[in-house]
Design brief:
The protein is an alpha/beta fold and 104 residues long. 37% of the residues lie in helices and 26% in strands. The chain has one domain: 3-Layer(aba) Sandwich (Glutaredoxin), CATH 3.40.30.10. The model has no long low-confidence stretch (mean pLDDT 97).
């Protein structure tokens, strides 16, 4: 299960030293719901090697603005706190795995 990323735990997550993937989503977004099971599977597969979480755009304006998210779903890939990749829209598990593997 993907970690819930909020304003309250964002700094702690970023300080752990692991690559981070943030899935920006909303409950009302059809494509977001479509990729949710894939994001959850990836969170389990990469447990201990990367942090994979979901950030609700409706309740975390600061984080959304920080990464310039305008469309959802948007997935950002962060290594050492720096943005190294970004994907907008739904994607297959293989596409997302390749982006995560490139950070490891």
């Amino acid at each position: 299960m993907a970690l819930k990323i909020t304003k309250e735990n964002y700094e702690e997550i970023m300080s752990k030293g692991l690559p981070v993937v943030i899935d920006f989503w909303a409950e009302w977004c059809g494509p977001c719901r479509m990729i949710a099971p894939i994001v959850d599977e990836l969170a389990e597969e990469y447990d201990g090697r990367a942090i994979i979480g979901k950030c609700d755009v409706d309740s975390n304006d600061d984080i959304v603005a920080q990464y310039g998210v305008r469309n959802i779903p948007t997935l950002v890939f962060l290594k050492d706190g720096q943005l190294v990749n970004k994907h907008v829209g739904a994607a297959s598990k293989d596409v997302l795995k390749a982006k995560i593997d490139a950070m490891l």
